[in-house]
Each structure stands twice: as C-alpha cells, then as structure tokens.
Amino acid sequence: MEYTLLAPGPTPLPPSVSEILARPMIHHRTETFSKAFYSCIEKLKKVYRTETSDVLMVTASGSGGMEAAVVNLLSPGDKALVCVTGVFGDRFVKLLRAYGLDPIVISTELGRALDPDKLKNQLLMFPDVKAVFLQHTDTSTGIVNDVKTIANVIRDNSDALIVIDAISGLAAEELQTDAWDLDVVVAGSQKGLMAPPGLAFFCISPNAWKAVDEARLPRFYFDWKALRFAAEKGQTPYTPAVNVVFAQEEALRLITAEGIENVWKRTSELASFARAEVKKRGWNLFAKDPANILTGIVMPEGTDSQAVVSAILAEDNISIAGGQASLAGKIVRLAHMGYIQKADVERGFSALEKRISITTT
Ligand SMILES: *Cc1c(COP(=O)(O)O)cnc(C)c1O
Asked: What's the whole-model pTM score?
C-alpha cells in the first residue's frame, strides 16, 4: 500500500526533489554548490517578499533557527515578549529561559489567534521590550496570527523588534516581509518549502542587523555575522546539508514558477475543502482562527486521537498527526500544505471516517 504523508512536517517531496536527493554527493567548497546556494537565496527572497532584508541559511531544524534568532538579537537582562498560541510559542519561552532571560508571556486560549489589543496593552506596560516573538502559524493548534495587524501594533506602540516564526507558514499562507515591516522571519525547509528537513532560513532586516551588532548572548554555530560573511561567497561557515540545499533549490524553482500568490491561493482552497469535509461529517474544527496549513479536528468524547493516528498508520499507511502537549489524545491534525494534493487529503478523510463514526455537535 502506498504511503501517504499528511503530517504537518516533514511534508511530501515533489518527485523532482526526491530525484535530486539520489544524486552522488559533491564537495561543498565548489562553484556548483555556490550556484545552488545563491539560487536558493535569490528565490527565497521572492517567497519572503523582500528586497531589503538579507536571507541566510543554516543547517538545523526549525528550532535551531528559532534559537539563532534569540541569540543573535538579545543580550543578558533584555526584556522580551513572547506571544504563546501553542507549543511553538512555548518553545520560544523555553529558549529564552535557557539563555537566562525572563520573558513576558501573553498566552491565548488554545485554538485562538493572538488578540492584537492584548499585545498593545503589554507593550504600553513594558516600554523597554527589545523583541516580540510570535508564530505566523502555530502548527500545534492550527491557528494563523494576523501578522500584518500585529506588526502595525508593535510599530505604533514600541521600538521592539518583530520576530516571526514562519517555519510552517512560509510558502503556505500570505506573508509580506517588507510590506509588513518584519525584522526577522524564521523558516524551515521541511514544511511549505517542500524539501527534506535540515535547513533553517532567516530573513533579517537592516533594523535587525543593528541589534545583532549590540547583542551579547553567547553564540557560535548560529552566529549570523559568520553566516553572512560566508554567504557573500555562496558558502556556509561549516559543512552544510549539501543535498538538502540542492533539493531546496529545486523545490524553490517549483514554487517560484507557480508564483507565491498562486501557492497561497492553492493552499487556501485545499484548506477550505478540508474544513468543509469536517463540517459535512458533523465533526468539530479545533481552531477558531484556522490556518490554511492544516486542519485540526476535535475527537468525540471517548475517542483517543493517538489511537486513531496509530490505527490509520498501521492499517491504511497514512501518517496524520495527533495533538501535542495538553492537546495529546484530543485532536488529530491533517496537513494540506506544500506538495500535499487534494487526493491525499481525501484519502485522509476516508481513513478518519472509518474510525470516527460519532457525530458531535
Ligand atoms: C515545525 C515547526 C517548528 C520547528 O520544528 P523543528 O522540528 O525543529 O523543525 C517551529 N515552529 C513551528 C511553527 C513549526 O511548525
């Protein structure tokens, strides 16, 4: 039975991307590598919608990218504000605490996006906040934040840097780095960007670079200045995930050929289809402010979502995701970003239907 990957990362690879991964290894201190590197950076700028920010990459999963944003922007004793809409906002909190900082935390009810007014109140209360961290889309709850409005609120009420985790949102939901005036946008190769796990990307504004000059948290592997210095020659300071860079170049070729606006539109249409499939069956959507990257479905009373996930994998060879942290056992999450096709989503719903027969209200 063919395997169907419907988890929200890593996501399925287009065949031309998989093909590139099978090529023989090459050395990275070569012109061939630098060409692929530059090509990724140039195409990523289109995906990020930026002409004024620098784009860099590092070999790491998305969380490494989040850590890089923390250590390159802040100093001991700095005040930071984290907007927690789920597990990934919590990760920023843990990261900041690991570096000895004591972040101000705004938490929303799970399944809800951040309320910009709530953020405004906190910014007025703490005028010396150095950076605000939040998710574009929180993959644990399936919400999308109104980043455009939130960025406006931050600019109007604070000098804080705007740091966005778009690891699952980039190349899936609308994001405009320049037009929305975002300082740092972190992304990862393995979600909307349709490449294998292994690369984290950063979009860094001129304003953010000023903060990098002043930041004093310890850093070595994730030092953006070292990354920028090497990037000027189409290189990375240390051995990169060579074949992932080539795979990412191909995936970005597909994305830019389709056009990023068309990617957003296609993802949004597939999300509408998925939400309609949920409602049609009388099930409940988890997110009140749903993202287009995935659909979270609330399990009826007495149904353990983890058992549903395991049964679907064992019997139908389909990977969907359960809930994380406090949502474990309570929801399933079915992704529809990147290379996931409508037929895949339909297969996911047929498999779910066999295990969730009870209609909820
Ligand atoms: C996947 C993801 C991450 C990072 O996860 P890794 O497993 O480290 O790649 C961070 N934030 C969001 C919103 C994500 O979806």
From this structure: 0.98
